[in-house]
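User: Structure tokens for both sequences below?

Assistant:
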Amino acid sequence: MIFFADESIEAECTSLLRDKGHTVHSVAELFPSISDTVVLDYAVHSNAILLTNDKDFGELVHRQGLAHLGIVLLRMRKTSALVKAKILADTIDRHGDELMSAFTVISSNTVRIRKD
């Protein structure tokens, strides 16, 4: 799968997904400090699912109606980056196809997938 990691996503997440064979583009590596709307647009044009810790993307897609190919919001504030990466990778392994065109929220013990 192809993912675009927002600047808020830890390097451990991008590294683990790459190790598992996924293509992961990263805001931090490519375009530091770009706006959320540009991040979302880049993800769409790259045919990528957006990975983020930033709940503002919910506002952009649900209230403003901006296009996306899938957004995965990580809500694990007190979780170490390594554990967060493992939970993300496990979720992708279990629900990969369901993530396309969906808004997914992953917490430490819950995965909610909302299809648009």
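Moving on to the next sequence.
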Amino acid sequence: MPRLTRAESQNVTRQKLRAAAIREFSSHGYVAASVDRIAESAGFSKGAFYANYPSKQDLMLELMRETSLRETTAWRTLIEVCDDMDAIYRELVARFDAFLKQADWGLFMAEIQLQAKRDKTFGAAYRAYQSDAKKFSNEFFTALFARAGKRLPLPVETATAMLHNLVTGLYLNIGSDKAANASGRAADMLVFFLQSLVAMGTPLPQRSSRRSTSK
């Protein structure tokens, strides 16, 4: 097996630290989360943690940015490659279902929002993250409605906030919902929200194509 390059080795280390951090933040909250436990759970020393992340805050925010970018990129790709709107909705249900099955993320998302309320410094950094996340979500809504040939029936920022709050609420409910296929039903709700918005949209004006005639 070929030896990893330094960059590849660092990437593996950071991936393990991020996975351990999600478990730690979800179990203990931000304030009580321990860098020692994160590093130990990932199989590294505390020095390895600080060699990759200046603080818990930096790691927490990187997790949020990475997830927002990955998911919204995947959603936009679905819009581009699927044959029609029905296929888009089916694939979004599957994507949302897989995303919502990651139970630790629900607690993690709630914790990061609570910490932003408690700590002004952290709150300022979180708002900067939200600016990027909103941009990604705005692009998703713009692409979805363009594909449907519709105008969004409300400001894109409002739709983004509604989707974000819906996802967070469903995440938390799934944690206490022991019914079979709870994530699948939650994914259906999310896509129903998107379908309803599209149905409320007004059709975009059709471009008239006139053939030019030459004498």
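User: Anything stand out in the second?

Assistant: The two ends are 72 Å apart (CA to CA).
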